[in-house]
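Is nickel (II) ion placement plausible here? Inputs below.
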Amino acid sequence: MASPYAIRILGDPVLRQRASDVTDIDGRLAALCQDMYLTMYEAQGAGLAAPQVGIQKRFMVYDLGAGDGPQVLINPVITESAGECEFYEGCLSLPGLRFDILRPSSVNVTGLNLEEQEVEFEADDFLGRLMQHELDHLNGVLLIDHLDEDQQRAAKKSLRKLSMGSSAAVDGIDAELGLSSRPKFGLFRSR
Ligand code: NI
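Reply from A.M.:
I modeled the complex. Tokens:
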């Protein structure tokens, strides 16, 4: 079955907005989640946040591939975090890119499930990383915001190569990465 949604990619303003709390946990939301599962599986992703399919609401779907099946987490909050580790992270909204990103190694997460029950759990390893990554999406934060300058340059190069093609897309990448389009040398030398 074809995916019901196109995954939004870097440059789409919806990825940069803070999503609002889910207020109604109802059949409509459950149906949206079903559609998002399909989209996530088709893209071979482990997690998908609502803004990635253009829905500005605070929920995510995920599947760790451990046989538990797809999960939903609504209005998630990280209440505690501890440790620090690097993880080779990718994002369906940044196709083809992966980077070593440093984040807390374990987090405590609370939220709601589709039955409107409160859930709370500690997440480390892959789940911990996934939670932090998807929660970022709900706040309009993308993987590239965690990159250091060298990684940003590499990302920009890769994105140009993968080329989303048009010069508008390349300008969008410049803007997203916060890189100056002014020449580094000459009149506009900035450092
Ligand atoms: Ni992502």
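Short version: The radius of gyration is 18 Å.
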